[in-house]
Amino acid sequence: MAGRSRLALLLAHLVLLAGVAIxxxxxxxxxxxxxxxxxxxxxxxxxxxxxxxxxxxYRLALLDGSSTAGIPPVGPMLWNSLVMALVIALGKIAxxxxxxxxxxxxRFPFRAAAFWLIFITLMLPVEVRILPTFEVVAHLGLxxxxxxxxxxxxxxxxxxxxxxxxxxxxxxxxxxxxxxxxAGPLTFFWTILLPLSRTNIAALFVILFLYGWxxxxxxxxxxxxxSYYTVVMGLRRLVSAAGEADPVWxxxxxxxxxxxxxxxxxxxxxxxxxxxxxxxxxK
Amino acid sequence: MxxxxxxxxxxxxxxxxxxxxxxxxxxxxxxxxxxxxxxxLYAQDAFGLSETFVGLANFAALFRDPAYLEAVGVSxxxxxxxxxxxxxxxxxxxxxxxxxxxxxxxxxxxLVWPYAVAPAVAGVLWLFMFDPxxxxxxxALKAAGIPWNHFLDGGQALALVIVAAAWKQVSYNFLFFYxxxxxxxxxxxxxxxxxxAGPLQRFRHIVLPLLAxxxxxxxxxxxxxxxxxxxxxxxxxxxxxPGRATTILVYKVFxxxxxxxxxxxxxxxxxxxxxxxxxxxxxxxxxxxxxxxY
Lengths: 283, 294
Hints:
B: 2 strands
């Protein structure tokens, strides 16, 4: 193209390299810190060269935690995060598929009202109704349970809209054929709609998995029992412990790396689906 | 709102299909939001035993409270800086990736993955980078003659959470700006180049106007992110301090509700936040309508 000189190309590469450096540096520093013995932090920084305690530190963080600093092990927290992320992602997809199916393929009184009711959830993030939502969950006896961690978050207007859009593009001839063959709505849903929405479901799953894994405020509210802590929210406990006399920064950073590893892997391995999910849900 | 032309018969089935979604919405969204609206109009005694209707007094008290006004100010500074930094860097990287062209695949992956990092984790990473005694950034700043201690200096604490919040959001803006740049027809740019417009002029007069819809959309998304999704960053790093230097609105509503136990005041704060969300969502939908009209 006219005007695209070698110099401009070089400049573009330099800008991108600088960008990558900004993105990678904090994580690299955290990784380096997670491979040094705790005592190294007493004498100041640990620099940019990895230490030799990789295995020991991660084993300690995963299985034992630090009883002197009051830190629970990370292993169970990772499990809780996984359960929370999977239940939220699959739950949101399941109930949104069903409600999109209902508003697209049936005519019934209050159809528009139901649609608007679902729409309203877009405007009510947890952050704006913290206290009363907490009270409802407490009254239902759901504090410190997987149900309390997940069910209040699985309503999804975005997913419902997305599936409605997908369903609206599916030819009516398929429905007519199903009606002629005497197939019921559930058979149609299961054998026609689900397979046709497969890619959309997968793309949405990636986004919702990240959403569920990265929840912070909600687990903070509904869990007081450390055995229900999720890793993203439990990390804070470690940070406050790291400020105390006993230096545990190596465990904090090992935990931070473990907390970001699963979602980063999901993006790296499913980049195409991720980009697709992101552009489909956010518009 | 349209349905399909051909639909299934059935009276009960659609309600059963809708039941889970509507149930969760009613119990965990509408009911609590209604409660927040109601209790913002009442004053409660310290033990929560009695309530008196006070009309808009909670709101009046809120907007006379210097601590609340300070949180409003901090939120706006925080949101403006995060949005500007994250969108600016996202645009610069996207323009560079667009210039590099096909070979930019690996760059893209390396720039996009921080989207997966939870805000709270991003906060902890940068907390360590800026740690006054160990952090490499803090030490570099000290060597450059800028003593760094975000535990004591409110401005520096705010800078820390801004950097952490923006860092995590750059990848999102990069992705959308990059997609926007790819969709600009090369013909328009080449024509300008033939007319003698330099790279900067072409960017300013052709590319930026064509990116306006993307920019507007990202502006709303970034403001929403900065206002509502950054709770974890504040809570995991500065805890709103030192003093009230990093207390943004969502952090204050949490702290007043759960630690201060000021129910009416906290509810009034929730209602104000609700108004902000509604405004931002309305903006976002205006954008969608405009795009549909194109």
